[in-house]
Amino acid sequence: MKQKTEKIIEEIKIKSAKIGRSLRFMELCGTHSQSVTQNGIKNLLPKNIKLVAGPGCPVCVTDQSDVDVVAGLALAGIPVAVYGDVLNVPGNIMSLKEARQKGADVNVIYDVSEALKIKKEKPNLIFFGIGFETTAPMTAWAIKQGLAVYSAHKLFPPAMDALLANKKIKVDGFINPGHVSAIIGTEVYKRFKVPQVIAGFEGEDILIAVNMLLDQILKNEIKVENEYFRVVKKEGNKKAGKIIGEVFEIVDARWRGLGVIKNSGLKIRKKYQKQDVKFIYEDLIKKIKAEIKLKPSACKCGLVLQGLIESKECPLFGKVCTPDNPQGACMVSVEGGCNIEYRYGK
Amino acid sequence: MYPLAQLADKNDMCLAIPGKIIKINGQIADVNFSGAEKEINISLVDVKKGDYIIVHAGFAIEKLEKENVGEIKNLLRK
C-alpha cells in the first residue's frame, strides 16, 4: 500500500512540474478536508498544487436564522432532535446548546430512527433536518413514518454553480464528494466546465484524484471521472432520489456565507404539511423571526467556505475562536475547515 | 453531553467503512463493521445477506459490487 502511495506522489510531482503553473483544486466534501489534513496530504504535494476546502460541510452552510428559529421553538417548549454537531452552531440569537442551558429540551441523535423512538414519549418532538442529498433521504423516510421536520436540507450541485459564478474564485479542478455522488450519480456534474474527479475518503483516494485531475489538465480535457467507483454508480441511488422527490420540492435557500442560492433547498411538499414544522408553527416562527437581529461578527466562515481565504487568515482563528468557543460554524463542525485546521494544522 | 473526541467520532458524517450484512429483519439489518455489529436501515437499497454496504447516518446508501470486495477487505485490514 505504502509503495503504491509513493508511486502516485512521484507521478504527481512529474505531472505538476510539466504543467508548470500553480494549480488550485477544491475538495468539496468536509470528510475529504478531514482526510487531507489527517493524512498530511498538503505536505506531500508539490508546492504548485494547492488544495482548498469548499462548502461541503453541511453544518457550516446552515444559515444562522434557521438555528435561531429552531432554538426559538425549543425555548417555546417544543422538544427538538438534532444531529450532534448542530448543537454548538451559533445563530444570531443563540446556539441550540445555549437554548438547552436555558431549559429547552434538545435531544442529540445519530440517526432519524432514534428521533422516531423519542417521539413515542414526546409526541410533539420536531427534528432539525440538515445536510445535503446524503441525509435528505433519511429525513424523507422519517417524514413518511410520521416525524415532524424543520427542513434546512440543501442540494449540493447548485452550490457548485454559485462557486463557479463567482469570478473571484479560481479553481482548476474539483474533487467531488463521495457520498453525495453515491446518491445523485455522476451525470449531474457534467454541466460544470471544470475537471472533476469523484473521490473516496482514504488519503490514497485523494492522491489518486489529484493525479487524475493533473492528467485531465495535461491532456487539455474537461470531464467527470469517478475514482470512487467501488461505491458511486453512474445513475446514483435511484431509491434515495425517488424518496427525496416524493417528500420534498426544490426551492431557493439561504446558505451561511454564500447567501441565497437558486433552487438549492428542499421544502416539504404540501402532501406532508402536517409534518412540516414551518407549516405547523407558522405564526410562532414569524414571531421568532421578527426578533432576530443580525449579529455583527468578524467571523470569516463564508470566505473560508468558498476557498477565498484560509482559516489562518481570519483574525479570530485560534484566538477568540476555538472549538470550545466557536464564533462561527466552520469552527463548530468536525468537518468545518477551521475546526480541522485547529485540530490538525500546524 | 458527549466529550468532544467522542462527538467527533460519532459525527464523522461520511464514515467510509463498509459493513457486511449478517441478518435482515424487514427494513433493518444487523451489519458487521470490522467486528462491531450495528443495526442499519436498509430501506434505501436492494440488498441480501452477505452483501457489503456503505452506511451514512444509520442508513445503507449503496451496495458494494462483488468485484470490489477484495479491495475493500484490504482497506479493512489497514
In short:
The complex is a heterodimer of chains A (346) and B (78). Chain A has 346 residues and is α/β, with parallel strands linked by helices. Chain A has helices spanning 2-19, 30-38, 41-44, 64-75, 96-101, 112-121, 136-144, 157-165, 178-184, 203-218, 238-247, 277-280, 282-290, 301-305, 329-332, 337-344, and strands at 23-27, 49-53, 80-83, 106-109, 126-129, 148-151, 173-176, 196-198, 224-226, 248-255, 259-268.
Describe the structure.
The complex is a heterodimer of chains A (346) and B (78). With 346 residues, chain A is α/β, with parallel strands linked by helices. Chain A is 40% helix and 16% strand. Chain A has 16 helices and eleven strands. In chain A, strands 2-1-7-8-9 form a five-stranded parallel sheet. In chain A, strands 4-3-5-6 form a four-stranded parallel sheet, with helices on both faces. In chain A, strands 10-11 form a two-stranded antiparallel ribbon. In chain A, helix 1 packs parallel to helix 10 (203-218), helix 2 (30-38) runs parallel beside helix 16 (337-344) and helix 4 crosses helix 13 (282-290). Chain B is an alpha+beta fold. A five-stranded antiparallel sheet of chain B has the order 3-2-1-4-5, with no helix packed on it. Chain B is 21% helix and 37% strand. Chain B is built from two helices and five strands; from the N terminus they run αβββββα. Chain B has helices at residues 4-10, 69-77, and strands at 19-25, 28-33, 36-41, 52-56, 59-63. Chain B is globular. Mean pLDDT of chain B is 77; it is low at 1-12.
